[in-house]
Every structure is written in structure tokens, then in C-alpha cells.
Amino acid sequence: MGRSVPAILTATLLLGIASFGNGRGANAEEPPKMQTVQGKHIALKSDGGTMESLQELVQAFDTAVPQWERFLELPAGTLALWKVDAFVMDQPDRFRDSGDLPEGLEFPFGFAMPDRIWVMRQQSDYYTRHLLLHEGVHALAINQFGSTGPSWFAEGLAEMLGVHQGVGNTVEVNVVPQSRNAVPFWGRFKMLSQRRAENRIPTIDAVLQYPQDLKSDVEAYGWSWVALMLLTQYPEYRVATLAEAKTPSIQTAGFSAALKRRLTGDWPIVQARWRMLVNTIDYGFDWQREHIELSIKDPVWNGRPIQTLIKADQGWQSIGVRFAPGMRVKISAHGRCTINNDPKPWVSEPPGVTIHYAGDRPLGQLLVCILPNRTQEGQLLEPLSIQTIESATEIVVDQHCWLLFRINDHLDDLGNNQGGYTVSIQR
Ligand SMILES: [Zn+2]
Q1: What is the 106 CA–ligand 1 centroid distance (Å)?
Q2: By the 8 A CB rule, do 261 and 386 touch?
């Protein structure tokens, strides 16, 4: 971190491997001319890339800004005159020579100041564009909130409003990438999957306590992104999160605690939803289908039989009651659903279609998850218990919990599913 850099900017680094030159006309005798492109919200200067590719980046940035304004619920027109100087660099020394990059300012990926951002050109157009948007969000946060906020919020917001699909004026931000191929070199899900496999998933409380300097740790960036999605995809949390971001607490270390205070009554549900989210999210995750209905007010099961439909086109579904330690629960299921239409409808029953798999389990298989009512862990979550229901199954409950069900399918392929299974719960 350069000595001349204000403390407010310490959260703006993004991990990566700097790539110099890239063979994009980096001829030692005659380096390519600096090119500039003027947009509405960005003046872009670069020492590489074609004029067409730079114009595309400018279009993408200008297309993202109104989406950021809407997402942050700023009064319409707030950002009409907001503009940054941006530098997409192959060879940082050339920008030092021209006075565009302050002496002593070094970073592997990108950096933001209130009205200036720098990005190292990356190995994919996607990732270069992603970083340009990411650093743009940092600059915007400083402009609007006076600070980027604590590290998890700063990087979560910049990732969330930087991850995108489309190019140029078709860019749409705040999406969950459909596939690895859609976001070359971004790599966040690879790290999160690895941590899942190792049972090293942090609690949301641990994420909110990340140190201010994340030391460009890609895992911390990933969990911060997931945390901020959780806190903005559920409307009731979004209201609290955006409201707190617009108070002076965003400029202090007390921000996370103040946000949790706003959500005090909901926090056990935030923690429970986090536990499900971090176990589920991957390429193709569809927020429209993955909201989980849970309430602290869900009654404790009174022992009377319950029958409920678990839908094939939705993610995890609670049956609406909580269970207490010592309860013996007999679960059975019947019914049929279709889980694909190509080339013809695949009809499945609770054991699943055993010739097709998603996540190592047959498509169409009914799954049950025991979700604790309380998150007792401080740093790392205990793994969830997820079982299959192929025939009548008995569960002996050993802690206060919900039972959640879902019909196994690829995360990005729930939209063409129909029907579901009727699940019966009895003593
Ligand atoms: Zn950042």
C-alpha cells in the first residue's frame, strides 16, 4: 500500500496476478499509443486493447451506473453527473511516467480513489470488465457514503455490483454466474466449493468480523459477496442494510454491529438462511427459486400428522414447523414430478432417476436437511445433515431444528420442473 494513500482506501485491493503486456502490441521499440474513450460516467485511458474493446468497456460502465443507482435506491438522477477517470493498464510504468498513476501506489488487480480507478488488464475480457466495475463501485461508495465501509461490506458490494452477464450496453450486474465459462478467471466458486468439501465454511458472524485488510484473499471476497447477497436479496434485510449504509456508521468500525442491531429479531433466521445458502450456492443458483420461508414464530410440531407438497421447481422448502430434541419423526413421500423435458419429460418418484445425477445424487431424488434453529458456532459451521428419503425413514431429532426438503436437480435447471412429492410426517 502506497504511503500517500488515505486510510479510507485500504479496502479496495483485489487479489490477482498482474499481467503485463499480454503481447497486445507491446513492442519494445514503439509501444502502442495511449488511447482514450469518453463516456457519460467514465473517461477511460488505456495502453492496450483495440479501440473497439475500450469502447465496449465504456459502454458497459455507463450501462452499469443506472443499475447501481437503482439498486442502492438513490433518488433518480443522483448519479447523472457522476464520472470517474479510469485507467486500464498493461504496463503501469507508462502511467507513472504520464502522471496518471501516483508514485508508490502498487496493487495486483485494481485500486479506487473517490474519482479515479485503476485496473490491471486481466487474462479474460470478462475479468477486466469485472474489475473495472468492481473498482467503480468502490469509487461510488466513497462518493455516496463517504466510505467503502468495513471490508466485508466494501468487497461484498463491489463484487455483487461487479459480477455481470452481457457485454457493452447489454451488461446486467448483480447476477449469479450461470457457468464457469461465463466468468473466466473470476474463480470465486472454485474456492467456495473447496471450502465446502473441507468443512471449513465460516459463520456469517465471522464474515462480518473480517479484519479491515483482507490481504487480497479470494476466499474472503467470495464469502463477503455471498453475505451481502443474503442481506440484500431478502427484501426485509435489504431495507435494513441500505438504511444502515446511508448513516455515518458506514465510516466507522461500528457498522456491522449497528446493522445486526437493526436485524436483532431476525438474526437467528439470517444465520439459518446463511447456513443453507453457503451449502447450496454455486453456478446457476437462482434467487427467484431459492428464498427459504422460515420464521422464529414457526410452531413446535404438535405430533399430529402433516402432509405437504414439496415442489420440484423450488429450492429448499420448510414444512413450517420446528422440532424439539427427542422427537421421533417418520417421514414418507409419494407422488411424481417431471424434472426435464428434453428430449421428452423425465418422470421421477422420490428415489430419483438413477441414471442421471446432479451433485453426486440422482436427479429427482427427495432430500431432507436437518437445519438447527440456532447457530451456536463462532467461526466455522458444523456440516449440515442431509439425507435421502427413498422409502419411509425415521429421524430421531437431537436438537431444536427445522426439516427442509428439496427435489434434487441442477441449480440452473429448476425452471422446467413440474409437480412435486407429497411428504407425510408422523410419529
Ligand atoms: Zn475491492
Answers
A1: 14
A2: no
- pLDDT tens digit string along 156-182? 999 999 999 999 999 999 999 999 999
Q: Which cell is 129 given? A: 470488465
Pair 181, 47: CB distance under 8 Å: no
Which parts of 79-180 fold into alpha helices (H)? 92-97, 125-145, 151-160
**Terminal-residue alpha carbon distance, the chain:** 62
State the distance from the centre of ligand 1 to the C-alpha of 118, rounded, in angstroms: 11
33: number of Cβ within 10 Å? 8
For residues 370 and 321, is the Cβ–Cβ distance under 8 A?
A: no
pLDDT one-digit tens code per residue, 185-194: 898 999 999 9
29 CA distance to ligand 1 middle (Å)? 35
Ligand 1 centre distance from Cα of residue 270 (Å):
25
Q: What is the pTM of this model?
A: 0.91
**Where is average pLDDT lowest: 157-171, 273-287, 314-328, 341-355?**
341-355
pLDDT, residue 359, reads 83
Average pLDDT, the chain: 92
> What letter represents residue 382's amino acid?
E
Q: How far is the CA of 237 from the centre of ligand 1 (A)?
A: 23
Distance 279 CA to ligand 1 centre (A): 25
Cis peptide before 66 (omega within 30 of 0): no
> Residue 300's beta-bridge partner residues?
322
Q: What residue ranges define each of the domains in the chain, with the CATH number in brackets?
A: 7-148+158-173 (3.40.30), 297-426 (2.60.120.430)
Q: Which amino acid is at 287?
A: W
- 135 CA to centre of ligand 1 in angstroms: 6
Task: Calculate mean pLDDT across residues 273-292.
Answer: 97
Find the 139 Cα to ligand 1 centroid distance in Å.
10
Among the listed residues 184, 185, 206, 182, the one whose alpha carbon sits nearest the alpha carbon of residue 195: 206
